[in-house]
Amino acid sequence: MTYVLQVDFKMNGPFGDEMAEGFADLAKSINEEEGFIWKIWTENPETNEAGGIYSFQTKETAENYLNMHAKRLASFGITNINSKIFEVNAKLTEINKGPVK
What we know:
Layout: E1 3-10, H1 16-22, H2 24-30, E2 36-44, E3 49-56, H3 59-75, E4 81-87, H4 90-95
Antiparallel strand pairs: 1-3, 1-4, 2-3
């Protein structure tokens, strides 16, 4: 069973191409996290929000990543993050072409 971690927070930018360029090394480092499968980066410049939807192999690896990520965000001055962890229903997700193993 896989798990999805949803994270979002207020951020004053950068967004778009500038965000992609500025956070490329961070994105590459996320690939090395234990249990990590994939991430979709999210942003809304109109509301100054950013975050991501992550997939992890286990609930424990999702929780461990969230704890580490919250500390990293705090080091950037971002402390009020919203987060949730969900189990993935693989059978229904496959019907809707979701990226499940």
